[in-house]
């Protein structure tokens, strides 16, 4: 039996997004999971995050946990110094005062940028390490979109990342982190580590593990890991490209009994990934072409249009109206769209009431240079407060988007909300009175996570290039600090430091 302090602090930071991520974004209502302290962290045995899976594995092994806190915020701009210092201090204080412990587990993302820290997780791990000393196991689970820098590797005993995108293995990853703590305790040391960084950025809409080449890549990862008893863990982080930091980029990380085994594993997997470089391209259709293609599909099942560049999950505003404008201009007679984040319009709809017609400036307010969509909408349905998520990623969690309205213009229905999150769960439509499968075109503001819940009901998926802050084309972004020479996408132009 081991006694393990556990905590979570997760953020995926888009350094190109204008709005910083403040303390309240971690502690107040969240679209998929609220911040928690102490015993609350263990209150929901179904909690669909890594720490939930860690807790289940620890309980099954008879380990005792000291829960400290867990916080996550919707991706956006850098975490403020205030938020970073307060939450990190809460974790460090919790570890320092948890009595006799054998190990520490942290549920982190791996792509946090905080005011003053390009590598937020490295600083969290450094401060925890400073409290527990050099030898105690300190293991963190990471999102598959982690940008792993050398200091994260140095301060952690081991790191382990998700293997699916959509992330349907978050709980499994937490359980793997528990296994790594047990490895460290059983061996009386941390495993040897090897890291291989890959020479190109992977646009996230090409990272789906429901399509090739990533199906094959992750299958091989599991093969390599299972095939060598010296390996404790093998991870492939595809990286989060919307961050102007030197540790941006994909990496393969292995832990093993000895460095040669770890090195052999990262080289085998790294070489396989590099052989698929050309697949990680940009290729997207503009809105009108995408809608036309969607309307040509056989009727019956919906066609899902993915607004991949306005993904709140990538730190975008979820308020751009490029696809909405095209749907209305093309007089599409049956389309539904979620989630358009516009607190002012959601509240205006609630004030007007169901059945009213309101003329509003919808969306287009949060990205410099964008304009709202002005139009008259019928308020079809209203809702407010918490609701259950039902899709494969977040089933078991409670969502809350505050005031939500279903607004209709002609045949186009839009889910407008006070809260901001990516549309990765059909519950977000149903909460606004829309059953997605009953409609011809279903537009989701999401880059890839929507696939878990929406692909099974879709006739076809069409990815759309409307403007937004989660650009899928890294070459279009004003980077200054990327690793010199990294290619901006598969077979793309190389980044050169401005001098
Ligand atoms: Zn992710």
Oligomeric state: single chain
Radius of gyration: 22 Å
Give the termini separation: 55 Å
Known CATH architecture of the largest domain? 3-Layer(aba) Sandwich
Q: What is the residue-mean pLDDT, rounded to a whole number? A: 96
Taken as a percent bin, the fraction of beta residues is: 15-25%
CATH classification, class level of the largest domain: Alpha Beta
Number of strands: 19
Strand order of the biggest β-sheet: 12-13-16-17-11-18-10-19
CATH third-level topology of the largest domain: Rossmann fold
* Overall number of structural domains: 2
Shape descriptor: globular
Which tags fit this structure?
binds zinc ion, alpha/beta, 499 residues, 6-stranded mixed sheet, 19 strands, Rossmann fold
Layout of helices and strands:
Blueprint: E1 3-10, H1 23-27, E2 36-37, H2 50-60, E3 64-72, H3 81-96, E4 103-108, H4 120-132, E5 138-142, H5 150-155, E6 158-161, H6 170-187, E7 192-197, H7 214-227, E8 231-237, E9 251-256, H8 259-275, H9 287-295, E10 303-307, H10 322-329, E11 335-341, H11 343-352, E12 357-362, E13 373-383, E14 386-388, E15 398-400, E16 404-409, E17 412-417, H12 427-430, E18 441-444, H13 450-454, E19 460-464
Parallel strand pairs: 1-3, 1-4, 4-5, 5-6, 10-18, 10-19, 11-17, 11-18
Antiparallel strand pairs: 2-3, 7-9, 8-9, 12-13, 13-16, 14-15, 16-17
Zinc ion binds at residues 143-145, 167.
